[in-house]
Amino acid sequence: MYTFNPGPAAVYPAVRQYLQDAFDQGWLSAPHRSEKVISLVRQTVADLKVKLNIPQDYTVLFTSSATECWEILAQSLTPRRSFHLYNGDFGQKWLKYAQAIRPESTGLQFGLEELPDVARLPFGPEDTDLVCITQNETSTATQLREGFILNLFNRLGGALLAVDATSSMGGLNLKFIKADIWFASVQKNFGLPAGLGILVLSPRAVAQAKQIGEKGHYNSLTAMLSQMLNHQTNYTPNVLGIYLLSRIMAEREPIKTVHQHLVDRAEKLYQFFEQATPLTPLVANSETRSTTVIGLRGEAALIEEIKRRALEQGLHLGSGYGPLKSTTIRIANFPAVPDAAMEALVQFFVKEFPG
Ligand SMILES: *Cc1c(COP(=O)(O)O)cnc(C)c1O
């Protein structure tokens, strides 16, 4: 059985052994103020920085999910308003969460085949705290590439750039230096079970959080940052999740290698589906479509039949998301999905649904 669901996604087979080790080595009841857990956190943060090319002067925090990160940013880094650029469900949800806390927050929706014009974005650099983008929009299988993020970063004025990289961090070689806030959760490109979020802050974002000094919530950034100085958290963290992450990071190849593998595989998959199947890529523009989530489009009846027959053969394809639920399929091109799974997927289409 292979799963291509883009989240919760396939976990590494090694997780089975890591779970056993976690139990046997006493991690499941290790006190979170103990030296054992403190050094685990220290080591995991160090490995994340090395393996993902996160600058040494950035701060890594652990949360429970990417959704929690949305809320933390609205609470603790947005005294006035945030501006959100989105083209799918996750980006739009982020805007809604932000507006629930900071009602003056605004957004701009853009098309799947389109790169927004950075020079004409409707936000005031003087009174906007955060500019928010979704680097990889999992629901529409689109992506904002490095060049766009760099352009945006250069036009921020006083605002900070916040990037939802939930379905790309751990898979793509992100240029952390070109934004102030990045976050993700581990059930996507990290190949781990859900329940742990990773929040990465630039020195500028940390300084801003301290200056704002918001303290009204259990997960206020001020408290999280001061605890993390000692590699601790303000509540009992998901020690099992952090342990699993530490094992995965220790095994991981450098992100450049992982990135290239995913880019090559995505290109082959898009080409195959375009030429040899009755499906077409959901996004035609090769500059805006995602590397890590392959979106495919077709008639609802065909999509349903493909999903059903694939499942019979042990291939669990990802459904569309939100309004695209019945007319699209999503294929996670994540590092924990083995090449053999992609090969099985291609063979299935060659045999059952040739174009
Ligand atoms: C999955 C996903 C989320 C939500 O992640 P949780 O860990 O469930 O909170 C947010 N943003 C994007 C882009 C996602 O793909």
Automatic annotation (TrEMBL):
UniProt-listed InterPro entries: Aminotrans_V_dom, Pser_aminoTfrase, PyrdxlP-dep_Trfase, PyrdxlP-dep_Trfase_major, PyrdxlP-dep_Trfase_small
Catalytic reaction list: 4-(phosphooxy)-L-threonine + 2-oxoglutarate = (R)-3-hydroxy-2-oxo-4-phosphooxybutanoate + L-glutamate; O-phospho-L-serine + 2-oxoglutarate = 3-phosphooxypyruvate + L-glutamate
Domain Aminotransferase class V: 126-297
Organism domain of life: Bacteria
Gene3D superfamilies recorded: Aspartate Aminotransferase, domain 1 (3.90.1150.10), Type I PLP-dependent aspartate aminotransferase-like (Major domain) (3.40.640.10)
Cofactor requirement: pyridoxal 5'-phosphate
Record keywords: Amino-acid biosynthesis, Aminotransferase, Cytoplasm, Pyridoxal phosphate, Pyridoxine biosynthesis, Serine biosynthesis, Transferase
EC number: 2.6.1.52
Pathway annotation: Amino-acid biosynthesis; L-serine biosynthesis; L-serine from 3-phospho-D-glycerate: step 2/3
Keyword Amino-acid biosynthesis: yes
Main EC class the enzyme belongs to: transferase
The UniProt record lists the keyword Transferase: yes
SUPFAM superfamilies: PLP-dependent transferases
Family (UniProt): Belongs to the class-V pyridoxal-phosphate-dependent aminotransferase family. SerC subfamily.
Record's protein name: phosphoserine transaminase
The species this protein was found in: Hymenobacter saemangeumensis
